[in-house]
Amino acid sequence: MTLRERLEAAQKQLECDRTSGLAALDKIFYEGVVPNPLLNGRYWGGLITSTFNPVLDNVLGSFTELWFPWQGKTFEATTNTGDNIFTNDGLLLGRVLWPFYNDYIPDGRGRSRAFKFHSSIAPCVLNPEIEVFRMNFNLEGNPRFLVRELVDELRQIDDDYYLGKAVLGNLDGKPYLAAYFTLRSGLNAPPYP
Description:
Order of helices and strands: HHEHEEHEEEEEE
Number of helices: 4
Number of strands: 9
Strand order of the largest sheet: 1-2-3-5-6-7-8-9
Largest sheet: 8 strands, antiparallel, barrel
Number of domains: 1
Helix content: 10-25%
Strand content: 35-45%
């Protein structure tokens, strides 16, 4: 069974045995490889699950099935930079959470880009024995609340298909896993909501 097939099985497993499903996702991430070549261009994303606690994850999962404005990421390999793609219906929430952030970039019909990052190959924050493709959001101009403390990490699990971890710092500064997500390359955008 390929890593991508195992990922699909782990996603189904989350519904009936969350602990085993999360363990399977972590094992798949560990068995993935550092992306080669490095990501460049537009990649469409999907949230697999948040990992705060079972009750909150269930509530967030129900909510994000109905509405989730994050659509993916763009990468510029020559400058090791990128940003995130959002549907414009998420801009209102963004303006409430980050009222002084104004670096939204229009990105075609119904979408905008925001929250720049710097990318690099680095040790995994939570498993330093492996290397990951890391996206660091601690950049001038990004909001301090939630965004600048975010580190996204990717491992390639299939041709142009990646499993990611979103890692946040808690109040005492220790990192914790906040979510699993996927990225895939492709020219076709998800349908406009």
